[in-house]
Amino acid sequence: MSEDKSASYHRSRSKSFKKTLQDSFLKDEGVVAGESSVISQKVHVEPPDSEGTVYIYSARDAGLTYLKLIEQNLVLHIDVFHNPADINIFDLADRIRFTISNYLDLTEDVSPEMLPEREMLILNLAQRIYLKTNHGEGTVLSPASCPSPPGAQLPGHVHILAKIPDKYYGLVYFLVDQIEKAISYQGYNLRPVNKLVPIHEQTASEEFPLGVPLTHNDAESPLEVKLQNCSQVLVAMAEQLGGLEIAESFMELISPLQTISLSRFGKRYPCMDKILEDLAKLGYIKKEAFGYSFTNIGKELKKFLKLHRKELAAQIRKAIRHIPPSPGATPSGHFCRVKSHFSAFYDKRKAVDRDRDNWYNPIAIPETVIKAAKRSILQDKTKFEIKEQDLMVFKKRCKAPVDICMVVDCSGSMKGAKLQAVQWVAEYLVLTTRDKVALVSFQERDAHVIVPFTKSYTNLHHNLLNLQPEGLTPLAKGLVTALDLIAKSKPRNPLLALITDGKPNTPLFSTDPVADAIKVCTDFPKNKIRFIIIGIDPSKEFIPRLAEAGQGNYYLVDDIDRSNLINIMRSERKTSTQTKSK
Amino acid sequence: MKSYLQLARHEGNNTLFETVEMAILSSLWGVPLHLHAEGLRGTGKTTIMRAARDIFPPITRIKGCLYNCDPEKPHCPFHKAMSPQEIAEIGSEEIPMPFLEISHSAKIGTIVGSIDLAKITDSANPTAAILPGIIPQAHRGVIFIDEINRLADTSPELTDVLLDVMGTKPGRVQIEETGLPVVEIPVQVSVWAASNPDEEPGPLEETRRQLADRFDMVIDMGRTHDPDSIAEILKLNSHVRMYEKEVSQDYKAMHQKARKELQNIAARYTNLDLPDFLRNYIARIYVKYDLESLRAIEAIQHAALLNCALKRRDTVLVSDITKAFPLALRHRVDSEILTRIMNSAPDSSSSAVKVTSPFESAAPAREPSAAAAAAAAAAAAQEPAPAQAKEKSFMSPVLSFLGIKGEKENHS
Ligand SMILES: [Zn+2]
Asked: Is the residue at A81 inside a domain?
């Protein structure tokens, strides 16, 4: 090949190489080049015993990871793999400087008066390329010998970070070639790469302990970030434990002197171990010989809670109101709804003029007749007739609040997330509606009114803290207690919601606990109590029978969780206030 | 009523002081900035916002123009068609930057404008003219609405008006009066609002999402528990009682000084801009976290510039953006997402980050070595002073003159 031909060949190769790089970078991919080089803008590593395979982490930017640059996709990451060896860095740097110069000669026409500027450009590019081998590291302009400690494993690649503008990406074509040559000339073998495997890491939020990324929670973080992290951690803890008060008393137990109390606490709140683990990951606590203790930032966290209790409580209420209604989602599992009687939805005492918005409501006959009669008199009509304008309809009771009595199984099996979800939903209902909420628990051999009908969040929340699941399932007793409460409190449009995860096993009247419960349910319709059951019932037997007896809807769910409960309660509230019939 | 400078600053309310100052600066730049202070009772949000008037710089308007026409770009129905000569003949006047409040009993006509009864009943020369309402009269200034959540709930018409006023910058307001053609007037008004999200009908972002999104920044108010701050509040109060007259003279001069200072800053930093890499950083946040509102990132950018100017810095830093995140995003994303976004900023104090000179080095921050450290040091020499050095807001000298500790570091 003549000199000219060779130049134009390399020029076009370099150009198409640049295009290849740019195309694959757009797809967050890398390129295998030469014999044993990998180029990307990401982190890529060679797994142990790779046999020519390199992993590329498409979500980890090289500039961000290695150089802490804010802007991504600025840095080329080039690895040239070789058998473990001490690669001379000065030789590499010399060759690269030489390559830059050749590359510019080849691709840019330089008039003599531009020469000083070209020299500057070479220096600039050289300064932007950083090299690391086992022998040393530094920019191409200022490499430094920096032997690794004796006994350290020899790295098997030359690591290069190049922060060069993309118009110079064609340089990489020559760079890779030159480095591979250098390794060979220094007497070492290249290790061929034949496969680049993309690794997609999960970035789901669940990965973050208590919702806080691990990366920057250190002493140098800006104040705003630290405060945000504190409140995030505390709110997450309160959410998992069921209240800020509980989180606070939990934090009091984090001390080597309280190990026994802490483990007792853990029995009651199974999620504690995970919280401890997360707190440790975030550096708020550390494990010592005799138990956990707070670090300095942990002490700050504790102080933050003391100082910002009110604000945090407000934030938790906000979070409760925010429980995603998951639009369109339906509760998982089986359920059955009985037909509702339309009369429940109209106020028979209030009739209004029929208009565009209420034309489908039932017609109020007496009121319509009276109105027509009045009009006839006023208009001096001798004949009585009803015209369209006379029609009156019953008013919908859409604004009527529904008072909800939740009857909750607090036997041992409900401990943890299930009961947590119930509490959360009770609080949600109080915060987001005008309804009153009451809660009756049944456990062991007894049932208790935990919360009488209330609209006060504080009231509800404080009473709910007393909920302590254990023991057996005296369902019938629970229903009777709820019935008494409703009879006593005279709520508006009472809705009794039974939430249970198991068959009753403690009878009330007879020896058959299921029959006893069914007997109580038959009283609901005549007391005008709407009845629903949300529960887990593997036999799919006793809940439907109960619902039938109480003429209510039932929902057999796979799990008692927030989204199930909320979706059901929301739709049940709606049917209590609106009509389905035309 | 206490002067703006008399109000004690502490970690719970300092952000509101700062954003209020940002908003005043923004007004001087001709960009309305809509603020919403949310907080429990007794956090002093309305007091601070109302008192901010004390340091409002003056504006120049065409003499007597109720719409506050800028003599250089008149916009009102009377002046917009006039020639510069005609306007010069009318003359101009300086008035304090307007601060008008919308009360809950205000009629919509009072707020936007209505037919001018005085003119129509003038027997000598009856004319049908529009009397501008509170909003057009607050042009180039601020309207303040307390308990915005309740007002938005009870008055849908007002919500619609606000959506128009805050929808674009500048916004617009339509005055409709039967028998007269609809008049649409551009208004450059910052809306400042306050609410207690814990009271009926709940947080604005839940009851009126669209309106909530119109607010550029939401300030989360806290109280102070720091005994020093509380003692300071007490001291200030007794001080006022004992030397009321003298002190108020003092404060008048200080207000004047603060106004001048804000005008100086506005003039000096009018061309401040975000470096590309920070703009890209914000843009990436927008894409990565799938933020719904473009307003959010506009607010982040604008707030960062304002914060930088108030700190009298020529270069916008990562820390300016970190500061803007909670303000611009708290009402727009989940708290957990906000936490993630705030932690996404690379450590603003680390050196290799914000170098933009052509000769910057690619020295790694992770694997320190002599060479790398030297390169980093060389790079550091070319960049502005580190962000984390304790910065003073423009108010600091004023406050320290009065013996008030401004901007306390939080629970250190
Ligand atoms: Zn005018």
From this structure: yes
Residue ranges of the domains in chain B? 4-57+97-103+139-166+183-221, 276-379
Write the secondary structure of A97-142 as one string of H (helix), E (strand) and C (coil).
HHHHHHHHHHHCCCCHHHHHHHHHHHHHHHHCEEEECCCEEEECCC
pLDDT attached to residue B25 = 95
Share of chain A above pLDDT 90, in %: 14
pLDDT for B341-380, tens place per residue? 988 876 443 333 333 333 333 333 333 333 333 444 444 4
Residue A551, phi-psi category: left (phi > 0), alpha (psi -120 to 50), beta (remainder): left
Structural domain harbouring A317: 209-321
The predicted structure's pLDDT at residue B350? 36
Who has greater pLDDT, A104 or B100? B100
What confidence category does residue A455 fall into, taking pLDDT thresholds of 50, 70 and 90? confident
Q: How confident is the model at residue B373, as a pLDDT?
A: 39
Superfamily of segment(s) B4-57+97-103+139-166+183-221:
P-loop containing nucleotide triphosphate hydrolases (3.40.50.300)
Question: Tens digit of pLDDT for each residue in B188-213?
Answer: 999 999 999 888 788 898 888 899 99
Higher pLDDT, A110 or A182: A182
Cβ separation of A67 and B364 shorter than 8 Å?
yes
Residue A447's pLDDT is what? 85
Whole-number Å distance, alpha carbon B211 to ligand 1 midpoint, is: 29
Residues A60 and A24 in one domain: yes
Residues in chain A within 8 Å Cβ distance of B281: 70-71
- Per-residue model confidence (pLDDT) at position B136: 94
Quick check: B290 contacting A, CB < 8 Å? Answer: no
The answer to whether residue A435 is domain-embedded is yes
Chain A: nearest CA to B213, how far in angstroms? 17
Per-residue b or e along A517-555, where b marks 16 or more CB atoms closer than 10 Å to that residue's CB:
bbbbbeebeeeebbbbbbbbbeeeebbbbbbebbbbbbb
For residue A30, how far is the Cα from the chain centroid? Answer: 31
Distance from CA of A70 to the nearest CA of B (A): 6
Q: How many Å lie between the centroid of ligand 1 and the Cα of residue B142?
A: 18
Task: Say how far apart CA B394 and CA B389 lie, in whole Å.
Answer: 15
Cis omega (within 30 of 0) on the bond before A150?
Answer: no
Domain of A539, CATH number, reads: 3.40.50.410
Helix (H) or strand (E) holding A578: none
- Calculate mean pLDDT across residues B132-151: 94
B283 CB within 8 Å of a chain A CB: no
Question: Based on the domain organization, do A254 and A350 belong to the same domain?
Answer: no
Least confident of A156-165, A201-210, B209-218: A201-210
pTM tops 0.90, yes or no: no
Residue B218: in which H helix or E strand, if any? strand B217-220
Asked if A144's CB is within 8 angstroms of B370's CB, the reply is yes
CA A67 – CA B351 distance, rounded (Å): 10
Quick check: B411 and A307 CB within 8 A? Answer: yes
Q: Which of B340, B341, B355, B382 to mutate to test the interface with A (most CBs of A within 10 A)?
A: B340
- Residues in B touching A127 (Cβ below 8 Å): 359-362
User: Does a structural domain hold residue A305?
Assistant: yes
Q: How far apart are CA A525 and CA B308, in angstroms?
A: 68
User: What secondary structure, in 3-state letters, does A366-426 show?
Assistant: HHHHHHHHHHHHHCCCCCCCCCHHHCEEEEECCCCCCCEEEEEECCHHHCCHHHHHHHHHH
In terms of residues, how long is chain B?
Answer: 412
Chain B positions touching A65 (Cβ under 8 A) are 366
Residues with CB under 5 A from ligand 1 (ion): B 65, 67, 69, 76, 79
Q: How many A×B Cβ pairs under 8 Å?
A: 158
Å between B220 CA and nearest CA of chain A:
9
**Contact (Cβ atoms closer than 8 angstroms) between residue A461 and residue A494:** no
